[in-house]
Amino acid sequence: MSASMRTYIIRRLLLIIPVLIGVTLLIFAITQLFSPVERASLYIRDPRQAKDLPSIIKKYGLDLPVYIQYFRWIDQVLHGNLGWSESTHMPVLKALITHFPATAELALYAAPLTIIIGILLGKLAAIKKDTAVDHATRIMAIIGWSLPSFWLGIMLLAIFYGGLGIFSPGRLSVWAENLVLSGEFKVYTGLYTIDAILNLNGAVLLDALSHLALPVTTLVTINIALLMRIMRSSMLEQLNKTYVIAARARGLKWKTVIDKHATKNALISVVTISGLLTAGMLSGMVITETVFEFKGIGYWAAHAATQLDIPAVLGFALFAGTIFVIANLIVDILYAYIDPRIRLG
Amino acid sequence: MKELKFILRRIRETPLSIVGLAIVIFFTIVAIAAPALAPPRPGRDPYMIPRYGYSPIPKPPSPEHPFGLTQGQYDLYYGVIWGTRAAYRIGVLIIAVSALIGIIVGGLAGYYGRIIDEILMRVTDIIFAFPGLILAMALVVAFGPGLDSVTLAMILVWWPGYARLIRGEILRIRSEDFVEAAKAIGCSDLRIIVKHILPNAIYPLLIMASLDIGSVVLTVAALSFLGLGAPEGYADWGQLISLSRNWITGKPGEPFAYWYVYTIPGLFLFLFVMGWNLLGDALRDVMDPMIRRR
User: Under an 8 A CB cutoff, do A317 and B134 touch?
Assistant: First the structure.
């Protein structure tokens, strides 16, 4: 790693500290909308503590000046105490951890598929500019961009689950769920497709995949549009550059020029928008998991929201904000790695 | 005027934006003509959908109810017509207030620079550090569910984009000769901002804001779908889609028996958003000075 890269990474790492402090400040500001008694639930780890609210208010200084409260709250957050989630009857952190594998499994399939299909279609549209293929991808992008994810989910369920009787909602069929809960099936990761492979159980693998099909389709359809359009325009830009003409003039095949030269350079601008893609995925998870009753973090947060489970929703927002900040950090570092102008600029 | 001519030329050049424009005009007429298309019962809040009974089971389209009745016997035709008006009402309100805040904050940051700029832009950074829908969701829960909370939460999430846009424009214009000249003849800061800078900076904002209505309405509908927005029976596309969730399996032997409850409100929302996006796709170039000044 070059010295300039190292300084860039250090500088960029230092820059996320104020943003993360800002994220916590905003969440903390939201908690200040509530009275001390209501806020006490943000600190409880166990419902039995709820009987003794005055002592909690005293213990965490909920009647003290705001800045002291902030530091005490941050102290709790950093120790993993995000409060008690009434809607799921467990601490917020535990609820986040319990629901994480389902969301991770969705992301494991949706994110790579979105990226690969988006890049391939965008590239294709650029190469075949102004042909039927180009127009078709443009229309696909506009439809994907405009489709309400919850409506797409409902329509897919109506057709494939209601109409054809395949691809039901949830993460597993009842028989598979019973098997997973029984001792025979070892749960290693909580990602059922991976666990099924590790258990060498093809039936569970197929069942898990059939439950993933529709939510993954929804997430990919909604998120692919942006990627496709960026890849297309950035590819077109590269194809117009002199190095492409020069490579052609040296007698290189068109296919080689596209694959080895233009695509690589076009991918740089795709990296820069992957931060936006993360935001789309996170928001998409809330809606998609709710529609398909896919019990991940998004499903949990949406249900907590309808039941006004404030610690859960704020814990989730803090989690999503942190993930998003870190994703943007990774994107920036990746960008600097690919494009030296960034880290030297 | 030159800009308007440019917009019209752009629209004529791309067939898809004509489709977009047609869709947008259709919805605008529906919103304006809602009281004539679906007359409300006198003395009732026109945004509340009339009910024709209390049975949970939807009823198919009939001459009296052209789009059928959804769960709870709410009239779907009335719901989607007034839903159009409701979408415009909340969308325009959110965007107008967000744009106003954006102009003030972005204007202050851009014109005064230094510490004010630093503080205000760090505030926008914090809001941008969250995925919009998730921050809006948290705010709505904190304010207590309802349309007023949704409006407020959406404004808080939406204004930073406009603030940054205006700030950027002002930074560009601030160093132009006519601003220097205004300063030299002793104009006050307020006069320079309002009379000289804003008229030059506001144009991209107006375009961006008016095209944002599609995404704002989509996000509001998502919040309603999650059960955080409109009260039950309010003419709201998101809520009508949410009410249809129990009916996707149809009846035994007739899987699409309730097709109208999920297809119709979703189609209205989808076409509305698409119309604005199609128009936006063509017009976003207008904001790009490289193309505009060509």
Answer: yes
Q: Which of A35, A135, A142, A167 to mutate to test the interface with B (most CBs of B within 10 A)?
A: A142
Report yes or no: B90 at the A interface, CB cutoff 8 Å. no
On whether the CB atoms of residues A227 and A193 are closer than 8 A, the answer is no
Regions of chain B with pLDDT less than 70: 1-3, 10-11, 284-294
The CATH topology of domain A92-344 is MetI-like fold (1.10.3720)
CA dihedral for B126, B130, B132, B138, sign (positive or negative)? negative
What residues form DSSP beta bridges with A85? A90
CATH number at residue B134: 1.10.3720.10
Question: Each residue of A79-90: pLDDT tens digit?
Answer: 888 888 888 888
What is the C-alpha separation between A237 and A243, in angstroms, rounded? Answer: 12
The torsion region of residue A83 among left (phi > 0), alpha (psi -120 to 50) and beta comes to left
User: What's the ipTM?
Assistant: 0.89
Give me the pLDDT at residue A344, please: 65
pLDDT at B287: 55
> Are A138 and B127 an interchain contact pair (Cβ–Cβ within 8 Å)?
no
B256 has a chain A CB within 8 A of its CB: yes
Query: For position A117, what pLDDT does the model report?
Result: 94
CB B3 within 8 A of CB B206: no
What is residue A1's predicted lDDT score, i.e. its pLDDT?
A: 65
| CB of B225 less than 8 A from some CB of A | yes
CA B225 to chain A, closest CA, distance in angstroms equals 8
Q: How many Å apart are CA B133 and CA B130, to the nearest integer?
A: 8
Cα B243 to chain centroid distance, Å, stands at: 22
Asked if B141's CB is within 8 angstroms of A34's CB, the reply is no
**Overall number of domains in chain B:** 1
Tens digits of residue pLDDT in A208-265: 999 999 999 999 999 998 899 889 988 888 888 888 888 888 888 888 888 878 888 8
Supply the pLDDT for residue A233: 87
Phi, psi of B234 (to 5 degrees): -75, 140
> Which of B33-43 are b and which e, b meaning 16 or more Cβ less than 10 Å from the residue's Cβ?
ebeebbebeee
Q: Is A269 exposed, middle or buried (0-12, 13-18, 19+ CB in 10 A)?
A: middle
- Report how far residue B177's alpha carbon sits from residue B187's, in angstroms, rounded to the nearest whole number: 14
Specify the 3-state DSSP secondary structure of B249.
coil
Chosen from A146, A282, A306 to mutate, greatest number of chain B CBs within 10 A: A146
| Nearest C-alpha neighbor of B80 from the set B26, B152, B127 | B26
| Contact across the interface for A148 and B228, Cβ inside 8 Å | no
All structural domains of chain A with their residue ranges: 3-85, 92-344
Q: Do B273 and A138 touch (CB under 8 A)?
A: no
Cβ distance of A162 and B138 shorter than 8 Å = no
Name the phi and psi angles at B70, rounded to 5: -90, -175
Closest partner residue to B277 (CB to CB) among A145, A155, A287 is A145
* The pLDDT of residue A50: 67
What totals of helices (H) and strands (E) does chain B contain, helices first? 13, 2
A261 touches A235 (CB < 8 A): no
Range of the structural domain that residue B144 is part of? 2-293
From chain B, pick out residues whose CB is under 8 angstroms from the CB of A151. Answer: 241, 262, 266, 269-270
